[in-house]
Design goal:
Elements: E1 3-7, H1 14-17, H2 19-23, H3 31-40, E2 46-51, E3 54-68, E4 71-83, H4 92-106, E5 111-115, E6 128-129, E7 132-139, E8 154-158, H5 164-177, H6 186-193, H7 198-201, E9 208-214, E10 217-227, E11 230-231, E12 234-235, E13 238-246, H8 249-260, E14 267-273, H9 279-282, E15 292-295, E16 297-301, H10 304-310, E17 319-324, E18 333-338, E19 341-344, E20 351-354, H11 355-362, H12 368-373, E21 378-379, H13 384-392
Parallel strand pairs: 4-5, 13-14, 17-20
Antiparallel strand pairs: 1-2, 2-3, 3-4, 5-16, 6-16, 7-14, 7-15, 8-9, 9-10, 10-13, 11-12, 17-18, 18-19, 20-21
Helix pairs in contact: 3-6
Length: 404
């Protein structure tokens, strides 16, 4: 039987659309999970694969404003991508992903990005690894700060129901300047960030929210869970930090000092941290953080010209980049990139790469020198990679604090 690819037509269709992804979690989705998704993912942003009267695959996207170095761009946050094991190796995923990219182009979303459950899947659709993500697991008794200076901060625990008004502006301040983060809507805050259903807790406790004030102004916040446990009266539990944001260095130090000083806990853990997180220099014993890296975001430039034009470039001589793109042929060609802007050109190429490589460099997560060393870009003119690095340089590493 032929598999038919089509968009969802009604919010009720989302219940069937998420069935393939939840199959790989070993259970069916709860009604409250589907309802939460409906609040942030319109049905027309979901492609489904039908075999007769059954959904066998799906691929959806969120509408995001993605922060890029020096600006923002309309982007698709790709999610709920899956094909049932009964229909693998039939081209179902390829057809859905191509249809999704065409829709992104029609909606003028110049970039698509995602977290990959398997990092070998998305390269063939033009997604390149664009950031690294870090995690820590720190024994509290080894969390001594570096130096003696500690900002004076007042901490308040807030009920989740009233937290958005205070913490959303703090998040927005950080997101506005951090490549990889996106602007959260009120619906996203309520359906995703501050939602605390039982199924999201695992073995840990309820989601907690703390706001820290410096100089009588809210300056930092943290969302965290406590997993309390004891062994013959000795604490063995952990604080798991969901996200912690500070609008300046003093605020960041204060919020992490608060988290490290929560009593009755033996450890503090956190994941999805940026590779340039100040924690490495805020603690006296950095190796005790057990700072570990893994792949992070994957980025796909849907419209190369629009995507490159959306970001800022440092003062440096321009460079001509030739891009190959088999999936989105409208991107193929040569682009002159410089501090004054981006334009298509017939000039001789100085760098040549597939669109996946351009996605790796786009947010500043990887340098052109690194990509050349890994044979992911061909340097046709001596010094071109160094010039591209000078142009694409970003003051901070790309970071997204949540998996969507």
């Amino acid at each position: 039987m032929t598999v038919d690819i089509r968009r969802c037509a009604h919010p009720d269709d989302l219940a069937a659309a998420v069935t393939p992804i939840w199959h790989y979690f070993g259970r069916r989705p709860l009604e409250e999970q589907v309802n939460a998704l409906r609040r942030v993912m319109p049905p027309e942003r979901v492609h489904t694969a039908w075999d007769g009267d059954r959904v066998v695959g799906a691929a959806g996207s969120f509408a995001f404003e993605l922060t890029v170095p020096g600006g923002r761009v309309a982007a698709a946050g790709i999610s709920i991508v899956a094909v049932l094991p009964t229909h693998r190796r039939r081209g179902v995923l390829t057809r859905m992903m191509r249809a999704q990219l065409s829709d992104c182009r029609e909606r003028a979303e110049a970039v698509a990005y995602l977290w990959a459950t398997e990092d070998t899947i998305y390269d063939r659709f033009g997604y390149g690894i664009a950031s690294l993500s870090a995690e820590i697991d720190l024994a509290r008794d080894r969390s001594k700060p570096y130096g003696t200076h500690a900002p004076r901060a007042h901490a308040r625990l807030l009920p989740l129901a009233g937290a958005q008004a205070l913490i959303a502006p703090l998040y927005a301040t950080v997101a506005q300047r951090t490549p990889g983060m996106f602007a959260r809507t009120p619906e996203w805050w309520q359906a995703r960030t501050l939602a605390d259903p039982q199924w999201r807790r695992g073995n840990a406790g309820e989601l907690q929210c703390v706001v820290l004030e410096l100089e009588d102004k809210p300056s930092a916040y943290a969302l965290y869970r406590i997993n309390s446990s004891f062994d013959r009266g000795v604490q063995t539990g952990a604080v798991h930090v969901v996200e912690a944001m500070g609008i300046n260095p003093a605020a960041m130090q204060a919020v992490w000092r608060f988290l490290f000083d929560i009593d009755w806990m033996a450890r503090v853990t956190a994941s999805l941290l940026p590779v340039d997180h100040p924690l490495l220099l805020l603690v006296a014993e950095p190796r005790r953080l057990r700072f570990a890296l893994r792949d992070g975001l994957f980025v796909r430039l849907v419209d190369v010209g629009a995507a490159l034009s959306a970001r800022h470039y440092q003062p440096a001589p321009s460079v001509v980049i030739e891009v190959a793109d088999d999936v989105c042929p409208w991107n193929a060609g040569r682009w002159r990139v410089g501090p004054g802007g981006v334009e298509g050109t017939s000039a001789a190429a100085e760098l040549r790469c597939p669109v996946t490589t351009l996605g790796s460099a786009y947010l500043g997560g990887f340098t052109w020198h690194q990509l050349a060393q890994a044979l992911r870009v061909e340097e046709l003119s001596p010094g071109a990679a160094a010039r591209a690095d000078a142009l694409f340089r970003s003051p901070c590493a790309p970071w997204c604090p949540e998996i969507f």
